Fold this protein.
Amino acid sequence: MKTRKKVCREIYKRYQRAGKKDKAKILSEYSRTLDYNRDYLAHLLANWGKTRHSVLDGKLVKYAAKEPAKGRQKATASKKTGRHGKYNEAFFEVLKGVWELFDYQCGKLLAPLIRGMIHFLAVEYNLDEERRALLETVSPATIDRKLRKEKERCRVKGISATKRGTLLKSQIPIRVCFDRDERKPGYFELDTLSHCGARASGQFCQTLTVTDVGSGWTEARALLNNAHRWVKERIIQTREDLPFPMLGIDSDNGGEFINHQLLDWCVQNKIKFTRSRPYRKNDNCFVEQKNFDVVRKTVGYSRFEGGKALKALENVYRYLNPLLNFWYPTMRLIAKEKLPSGRYKKIYEKDPKPPYMRLLESPFISDECKAGLLGRAALFNPIELKRRMDKARERLLKLSVIESSIPSGKVL
């Protein structure tokens, strides 16, 4: 700093007498030499050597900076500056509890979720008017900032057990993306997820995930294994339980989907059956993103085998599915724009919504289906559903087969 001051003391007079172009040259040269910002250096050189005077009581007074008094300096150092915090410790404890209860969601999803079930949360946490008002108005950025220290979690990676189906590929057309008319509710993407732990040998349970492209409606179904029979039965069961018709399905090239049983059933029921390109997961992006967000975050990476584990897994999804579809908000991709650089910019909805809200707003859903949706939503208490799902998950984890390479009870 002493050297910098010496340099500034040598050039400030030349700078103050120079014209506009010469001042620009001086700034360009010495800003790099002194490692100063150009604006700061310009302010420093323009005001170097100048003093401030004022007339006080008829006398000319010269102003000069002075070191603060020792007592004042200590008091200032010990006193916290800035605005007082709006969100107190009591609010943080409630926010942390809600965040942990609903599986550690990000601020953009947690904020609309809190607003949608604030009446249930007020009863569950016995909220006063102040904390309730803060929860209703807290922004997603504030949620992420307040929970930053709580978000340190270890991650483990699962094993893919998908085996390609070699038959019928010529009879099942490839779908690269969904057209605009297929973005309406009723067109689903399908995928299976293995609960094999650290090894893919032997028989283990699977999860069939079915996601509607238009609304984000998601159903998770437990399978004893990925045999053709079980996959077909779970798809039929899902179709019967849906509050709106199934118009088409799209899967990857796994043998559990590419088979005669499923193809014949789709032809008989006039359901459009397509498949993605091999080794292109982005073709099934709507369901692929649910593998972690829905399944792994709920039941983890442990190994589940046998009938007891299957029933326990079914019990977990019994409570998880209504939470996903009636209460958990999701962000839907609206459009993609190609930038001049060649990259694509993704545009999402500004306000995340639960899937059933999108169905209520859709012009393609009949009034009868919408009335059924409203009737279903009135039957559920999200806090009670989550409590029951947690108990069902605890029973499931007790049935997991502990693998030596995976920490026991590890659930993200």
Notes: The first strand starts at residue 52 and ends at 56.
